[in-house]
Amino acid sequence: MVKQTIQIFARIKPTKKIAGVFSVDDEEHGNTNLEFLIPHDLADGFVNNKKETYRFKFQKVFDQGAKQEDVFENIAKPVADSVLSGYNGTIFAYGQTGSGKTFTITGGAERYSDRGIIPRTLSYLFQQFQKDSTKVYTTHISYLEIYNECGYDLLDPRHEAARLEDLQKVSIMEDPEQNIHLKNLSSQQAANEEEALNLLFLGDTNRMIAETPMNQASTRSHCIFTIHVSSREPGSATVRHSKLHLVDLAGSERVGKTGVGGQLLTEAKYINLSLHYLEQVIIALSEKNRSHIPYRNSMMTSVLRDSLGGNCMTTMIATLSVEKRNIDESISTCRFAQRVALIKNEAVLNEELDPGLMIIRLKREILALKDELAMVTGEQRTDQLTEDELQKLEERMEVFLEDSDPEAALDVGADMRKIQHCFQKLKILVTERRSSPSSLRRGDKLSSPLPDSTLDVESDSTPQMKKLKELLQQRDNEITILVNMLKKEKKRAQDAVTQLSTSSNGHSLSQGSLGSSGTEPAEPSGRLFSGLQTRGSLAGDSPLHHRIGGEMSLGRQEAFEIFRRDHVDIITIEDNKALLKQRFAEAKALGEKVKLARVKVNELKAQIEQRRMQRAAHGVISSTVDLAEPDPVEEELRVHIEEEKKSYKATFGRLKGLKTEIEHLQLLLERAKVKLQRDFEVWWSEEAARLQPQEERSERSASENAWRTPAVSNTKSQKSNHKTREFDSSLSAVPSASDLRSFNPSHAPTSRESSARSHLESRTASTSSLRAPGKLVSPIPLTGDQQTDADILAFVQARQSLLQRKGGSANK
Ligand SMILES: Nc1ncnc2c1ncn2[C@@H]1O[C@H](COP(=O)(O)OP(=O)(O)OP(=O)(O)O)[C@@H](O)[C@H]1O
Fold this sequence. Notes:
Layout: E1 2-5, E2 7-13, E3 21-26, E4 32-37, E5 53-58, E6 60-62, H1 68-84, E7 89-95, H2 101-105, H3 117-131, E8 136-147, E9 150-153, E10 169-174, E11 180-183, E12 188-189, H4 193-210, H5 217-220, E13 222-232, E14 238-248, H6 255-258, H7 262-286, H8 299-303, E15 313-321, H9 327-340, E16 344-347, E17 351-353, H10 355-377, H11 387-402, H12 416-435, H13 453-457, H14 463-504, H15 536-541, H16 544-549, H17 554-566, H18 570-622, H19 632-691, H20 694-708, H21 716-732, H22 737-742, H23 751-764, H24 773-776, H25 786-811
Parallel strand pairs: 2-6, 2-15, 7-14, 7-15
Antiparallel strand pairs: 1-16, 3-4, 4-5, 8-9, 8-12, 8-13, 9-10, 10-11, 13-14, 14-17
Helix pairs in contact: 1-3, 3-4, 4-19, 14-18, 17-25, 18-19
C-alpha cells in the first residue's frame, strides 16, 4: 500500500492583459510558493480589509511560459507510471472558467504541440506497452459527462448526438460493498494509440455537438475520461487492473459574481452545488476522526470517490488566471487546493487472480495428487499412455541423458506407467551399449533406428571405409545447404506475396509503405476538407451536416462557402492543412526511403545465398574450400545488411512518429470542421430569424415567453424539456424551402402551399400587408423551379447579410 497526500500543482494561463501582482518562488526542498499581493488601495471590488499578501505552497507552479510537454512530464508521467504498475490514478483540473482546464487536460485545437495531458498520456502508455514484452496489456476507455447532475455517455456508439439528451444517460449504482458502478457507461477497447485517440475525438465531438449556446459543455459540465489498463505476465495467474481518471471540472466561479439568470442560473447552481459538495467532501476528508464523508451528495463526488481519500494516487492542477479582475477567483482556487493537499490517499496494488488460469492450475494439481495417491495406495492405472504422453516422456529422457550434470534428475511424476516406460527404455539403451559401446553416442535420438550394423561390424580404420565416410559427410553437408536454400526461397516467395497484397491494399502507414500511399489530402482549392482521409469510427457515421443540419441545399452550400472564408478559424485551418500536406510529403519521402532499404536488404540477402551456393559447388568439386571456415565475403555482406537494417529501423521509427502527428493534425482539422459547421448553423438560424417579418417575430417571441415562464422549473424533466424546446425553436427558425416559396410571387403555389400561405396570411393580415413582400421579393430572375428558386433566395439573403456584416465591421 502506498500512502500519499494528494499532490497539488498550479498552472498560470498566459495573459496579455493587465495582470495582478504575483510572484512565483522555488523553495529549497522542491516546493514552489505562489504569492499574490493585493494592496489596500488597489483592491477594486475585492473585500480586503485584513491581508495584503496571500501565499500558497504547491508541489510546483507552472508559470505563464510553461509548455504542454513540461506539464505532462512533471504531472502526468509519474501518474501514468504508477498506473502501469497497477495503481489507480486521477488527475483533475480545477479553476474558474477560461483559466485553462480544458487546454491542460485535453489540449488546444490549433497546434500539434498544444496536445494536452490525455493524448500525451495515451501515447506514453502505448509506447510503454510496446517496450515491456514481459506483460500483455489491455486497454479500455470510457468518457463520461456530468451536466446538471445527470451523467451522459460520450462514447455511446448507438447514438448520434445532436443534443446532450440524445446521448445515453448514465446512472450510479452501489453494491453491498459500497462500490460504485456506472450503469450504461460504455467501456470501449482500444488496441493501439490511434484507436484510443479516435475515442477521445469521438467523445470531444459529441461534447461539442451536444452543446448549445445555453450549455457551453466545457464550461458547465464535468468530464471524466477514464483509461482502464489490465496487465498480465504470460502464464501467470495474476492480473493487474488499474484505472486513470483524467478530469476536466466545470468552471468554479461563484454565482454571485457571474450575475446570471434563467437557465444559466440553474446550471450555475448545479455546478456550484456539485463543486460545493466536492468541497464538503474535501473538508470532511481533511478533518481528523471524521467518519462520514458525504460522497453521495453529488454524482461527481460519487464517481470520484476512490480518487478522494481512497485507493488512488491523485493529483490536482489548479488553473489560474492572473488578470487583475480574476485575482479573487485565483485566490479562492488556491485556497481550495491547500485543503485538497491535506487529503491522504491509500493506493493499493490492484492485483487479482485470473479465475480461468486458476482453474487450469488447480486441475493440474488435482491430476498430480491423484497420481501420487495411486502410488501411495498401490492402486495402479491400467489405461495405456497416449501418443502425446509417450512423446513427452521421450523428450524428457533425452534432456536427462544429454545433461552433463551428474546430479540431474528425471522427473516424470508419480505415475507408475511412466516410470515403467522409462526403465524399459533405459534397459534397451544399456543393453545396446554393452554389446557395442560406440553405438550410443551423444546426440543419438532415443527414438532413432538402431545404427546400421554393417558399418559397426566393419572397422572404422580401413582406408575404403574412411573415404566412404568422408563422402557421406560431404553429401550430408550438400543436402543441408540445399534444404536451407529451399527454405529461404520459399520464405522469399511468401514475402513477395505478402508485399504484393499489402501494396494492393493501399499501403497503410503502419506497414511502412507510405511511400506510394494515396492518402494525401486533396489540393486546398477543393471543397473544405474534401480530400482529407476520414477517420475511424467517425468517418462514416458522423459527418456533421447529417447530424445537425441535414443535407445542405445548394444555396446553403454557397452561403457556407462564403461564411467559411470569413471565419476566424480559417487561418488556423489553412495553416494546419498546409502543415498536414507538408507532413504527408515528409512521410512519403520517408516511406520511399524505407522501401529502398528493404529492397537493398533483400538484394544483399540474395547475394549471400548466391555466394553460398557457389562455395558449396566449389567444395564438392575441388574439396579445397573448407565449408566450415567463415567466408569473409559473406561476412562483409552481413555487415552491409546490418547497416541497412539499422537505417530501415531508424527511418521507420521516424515514420511512425510522423504518423501520430498526421493523425493528430487530422483530428484537429476534423474538430475545426465541426466547429465551423456548428457556427454556421447558429449564424444561419439567426439570419433566417431575421428573414421573418417583424410582426411574426414579435408574435413568436410573445408565445415563446408565454411557455418560458416560470423561468426556472423545479423538476429535472421539466428542465430538460424546457431546454429541448428552446433548442428546437432555434432550429425551426431555419427557413424551410416552402417558407421561401411562399414569399415568391412568381411561383404558382400548390394547394398545400396555398393553404399554408393563407393560414399565415390570416395570422398576419391585421398588421402586415402580404407578409412584407417588398422585403423579400428578389430583384434577380427566378427559374420557376421550386427547389432551385428557394436555393437562390436563400443564397441571396445569406450573401446580403454577410456583405452587410462585413460592411459594418469595416466601418467600425
Ligand atoms: N496555457 C495556455 N496557453 C495558451 N493558451 C491557453 C492556455 N490555457 C488556456 N488557453 C486558452 O484559453 C482559452 C480558455 O481555455 P480553456 O477552454 O482551457 O479554459 P477552461 O478553464 O477549460 O474553461 P471552461 O471552464 O469554460 O471549460 C482557450 O482558448 C485556450 O486555448
